[in-house]
TrEMBL record:
NCBIfam families: lysS_bact, PRK00484.1
CC per GO annotation: cytosol
Gene source species: Neobittarella massiliensis (ex Bilen et al. 2018)
Organismal lineage: Bacteria, Bacillati, Bacillota, Clostridia, Eubacteriales
Keywords: Aminoacyl-tRNA synthetase, ATP-binding, Cytoplasm, Ligase, Magnesium, Metal-binding, Nucleotide-binding, Protein biosynthesis
Pfam families in UniProt: tRNA-synt_2 (PF00152), tRNA_anti-codon (PF01336)
Cellular location(s): Cytoplasm
Protein name, per record: Lysine--tRNA ligase
GO BP term, pick one: lysyl-tRNA aminoacylation
Length: 497
């Protein structure tokens, strides 16, 4: 067996690192340390040149990026330069660079960051390229890039080393460019509707506004325990009280829960609140916003996720939770009048419930068990039980239910909206019921927020509010299988543990 065959992949990597470090040392000794370079003026990018070739042909441009490929033909080389827009071929030879500069160029490695000046042209084979007149090393790559990064097989490494993933997999970068465009389009839409973007605290003494366990921390300066916010709701409603009639915030929230394809402990939530409207107004706004964003970002109101087409151009379906459970589970909760009857129905249909659950909780369990997976096309599920909606205005004609909807696509909850509860007396009673739930073991129950109650006592106008899961929206619009695919740096388990 030869010595080459005995060499392990890790040993090959170690050898390459050693060689690159030796090259760096030689560069420093010769007074050409690449890490002292501070700036390089870029005048053109790869896709810009490709899209405007007829106007740019023959022009001299300056470019910078990463050396990603090399075809060595002795006194002439073709290399692939990868910049922020994509890749383009660079032609470098002794005649264009001069003997000394060409000799230095030949010692560069794949992964190095380089700058160049050259002329835009088309090769005899028809490929748009740049012929280099000057080249310089701007930063030395000391770790070799993988031949084929583990993105196809080792997704864990992709998420941990997203910087390598972005270099090696252009489709990953395209996903995050699209994510940025989605959020920009949302802002344009809301700004055009008269909404104002605001920022509210992330560190709070009372993490309310959602059913979730918070992360806890300690503020040394004041010797106080604080929590990371789980929602944006209660502070944004304070602004409605203060006379800011249309506000929204796009920001990170933090929930101390598990990891799966649709959940990450820190994620991006958008909440907006509009005075003098209700949950029907929030439905109309949601339809219009989703259509606008899809058209702006995708160029169509039809999106395809995992081979399934969803049409945002059609009116979104609207169904009550009671009717949805009746349709998909065959159980009519209009005919169930007591908690005992609800528990009997749950046992009959093998729906697990806890002793603390009320009739409305059990209705919601039926919905989660039998209905959600069927809501593929855009659907508003309306009128939830009051037990699971502590911040929502009751339906005047049926106070056991509230003016609330959840927006579903692809079987996923995409948004949650209310006619906001603005009665401080009712709100205090709801908080008390939540405290009782907490005492019975519900760690996700809300706690009484006295300052928020004080704000309601000052007076909050009738208001519609909604929260959108931005990451799930990005998953659908980019056809991404998991939430980690749309988070640049998802939460990962520490490898040292």
């Amino acid at each position: 067996m030869s010595e080459v065959e005995n060499t392990s992949p890790q040993q090959e990597v170690n050898d390459q690192v050693r060689i690159r470090l030796e090259k760096l040392d030689q560069l420093r000794q010769s007074g050409n340390d690449p890490f002292v370079k501070t700036r390089f003026e870029v005048s053109a990018y790869s896709e810009q040149i490709r899209a405007n070739f007829e106007e740019m042909e023959g022009q001299t441009v300056t470019m910078a990026g990463r050396l990603m490929g090399r075809r060595d033909m002795g006194k002439a080389n073709f290399i692939d330069l990868q910049d922020t827009q994509g890749r383009i071929q660079i032609f470098a030879n002794i005649g264009g660079l001069g003997e000394e500069e060409f000799k230095e160029f030949k010692r560069w490695d794949l992964g190095d960051i380089i700058g160049l000046e050259g002329e835009v042209f088309r090769t005899r084979r028809g490929e748009i390229s740049v012929k280099a007149h000057k080249m310089e090393l701007l930063s030395k790559s000391l770790q070799p890039l993988p031949e084929k990064f583990h993105g196809l097989t080792n997704t864990d490494m992709r998420y941990r080393q997203r910087y390598v993933d972005l270099i090696m997999n252009p489709e990953v970068k395209a996903t995050f460019i699209k994510r940025s465009k989605i959020i920009s389009a949302i802002r344009r839409f809301l700004d055009s509707q008269g909404f104002m973007e605001v920022e509210t605290p992330m560190l709070v003494s009372n993490a309310g506004g959602a059913a979730a366990r918070p992360f806890e921390t300690h503020f040394n300066a004041l010797d106080e325990d604080l929590k990371l916010r789980i929602s944006l709701e209660l502070y944004l409603k304070r602004l409605i009280v203060g006379g800011m009639d249309r506000v929204y915030e796009i920001g990170r929230v933090f929930r101390n829960e598990g990891l799966d394809t649709r959940h990450n402990p820190e994620f991006t939530l958008m909440e907006l609140y509009q005075a003098y409207t209700d949950y029907h107004g929030m439905m109309d706004l949601t339809e219009n916003m989703y259509r606008y964003v899809a058209q702006e970002v995708l160029g169509t109101t039809k999106i395809t996720y995992n081979g399934v087409e969803m049409d945002l151009g059609q009116p979104f379906a609207r169904i009550t939770m009671l009717d949805a459970v009746k349709q998909y589970a065959g159980v009519d909760f209009n005919e169930i009048h007591t908690l005992e009857e609800a528990r009997a129905a749950a046992k009959e249909h093998h729906v697990a419930y806890e002793e603390r659950h009320k009739k409305g909780d059990i209705l919601n369990l039926f919905f989660e068990e039998f209905v959600e997976e069927h809501l593929v096309q855009p659907t508003f599920v309306m009128d939830h039980p009051v037990e699971i909606s502590p911040l929502t205005k009751r339906k005047p004609q049926d106070p056991d239910y509230v003016e609330r909807f959840e927006f579903f696509m692809n079987g996923w909850e995409m948004a949650n909206a209310y006619s906001e509860l603005n009665d401080p007396i009712d709100q205090r009673e709801r908080f008390a019921a939540q405290e009782e739930q907490f005492s019975q073991g519900d760690e996700e129950a809300n706690h009484t927020d006295e300052d928020f109650l004080n704000a309601l006592e000052i007076g909050m106008p009738p208001t519609g509010g909604i929260g959108y899961g931005i990451d799930r929206m990005c998953m659908l619009f980019t056809d991404s299988a998991a939430i980690r695919d749309v988070l640049l740096f998802p939460t990962m388990k520490n490898l040292d543990k």
